[in-house]
């Protein structure tokens, strides 16, 4: 009996001695601890051979999202897990954030930032370029580099300094004069559009890529994320219906409002400021090639400019009617559409917005008249009558003044 107990005890001891080393070798207990790493890396003077700082602020890391979650150095620097001797080799593998953030990594693989861009003379962008390294904060943390209030500055750190595009850094910096940036920076409205609102976060594409959120194919949907009602009105209008058909010549948001430097319609610099709307619309509606292709009339700017409305607008009058006042803003419809603001049945109401009490007879007056002599004979006749009458009155006054001067000269000469 005693012999059996001794043999069993010896077998258990042998098994323990055999498997214990394997347990310790595979256990994180024997991995390098954060404290061990900080022995070297907490030194502010620690640098790599090429002069790059290798300093890690332990307090900063512990207050970051990974430190608060209990992550250790080797959780991210996974190639250190099997190293037994320290200090470790100088060159380590790049941290693979996709081991945990697999969804973001998959999106990143489809974006433009993953690859170097010879055209823009720049290198690939990594997770750390946007999120930081050891000081990464949650996207909901106001101190995070990708928090809405801070994101423009994070993107500009590359797009104003490292990236050289055909349009130059000025095009990127135009965002700072936009109504979106003012709402974000001045008013602190985090719901205002920032870089990722339009371009995306991890799956950013080139503007020439059809799948990009800012391509002509998708820009209406992108702007519609915030401007839901405007998107609906646009898609119900003449421009929107052609847009859905895939017609490339139809104007989209950026054609009228610009891109980065979008300003309020009440801003004098805005392309859709009251006195500038006609110029924006005429870019297409005075284009003879487009007119022949799609069957609409040209000389819209010329005929508008010749009217009272156009003349007053030239002199800076903002209350006078422009294209949008009559045709609508985003829900522009052809005159045959019963819902169109320029449908004959709706014209009294449209004109009545500026001219209270305007009736059917008032609304019959033509605005876009190429030739008054043939297109609006009554108006032409009245115009000519007034021109002749005014010329005659002025002529009579000139004759009267000349006769009076002549009489005075003769009277002065006759005096002794």
Descriptive account of the structure:
With 416 residues, the protein is mainly α. The chain has a domain at 25-93. It is 47% helix and 0% strand. The chain has helices spanning 2-26, 34-41, 58-63, 65-68, 73-76, 102-109, 127-131, 151-159, 169-173, 179-186, 195-199, 219-224, 228-236, 238-244, 253-257, 277-285, 288-294, 300-305, 308-314, 323-327, 347-352, 372-375, 377-414. It is elongated.
List the helices and strands and how they pair.
Blueprint: H1 2-26, H2 34-41, H3 58-63, H4 65-68, H5 73-76, H6 102-109, H7 127-131, H8 151-159, H9 169-173, H10 179-186, H11 195-199, H12 219-224, H13 228-236, H14 238-244, H15 253-257, H16 277-285, H17 288-294, H18 300-305, H19 308-314, H20 323-327, H21 347-352, H22 372-375, H23 377-414
Helix pairs in contact: 13-14
- The structural class is mainly alpha
Q: How many strands?
A: 0
Largest sheet features: none
Poorly predicted regions? 19-30
The N- and C-terminal alpha carbons lie at a distance of 170 Å
Helix percent band:
40-55%
Element-level helix/strand string? HHHHHHHHHHHHHHHHHHHHHHH
Whole-angstrom Rg: 37 Å
Shape: elongated
Beta fraction:
under 5%
Per DSSP, the total helix count is 23
Briefly characterize the structure.
By secondary structure, the protein is an all-alpha fold.
List keywords for this structure.
single chain, mainly alpha, 416 residues
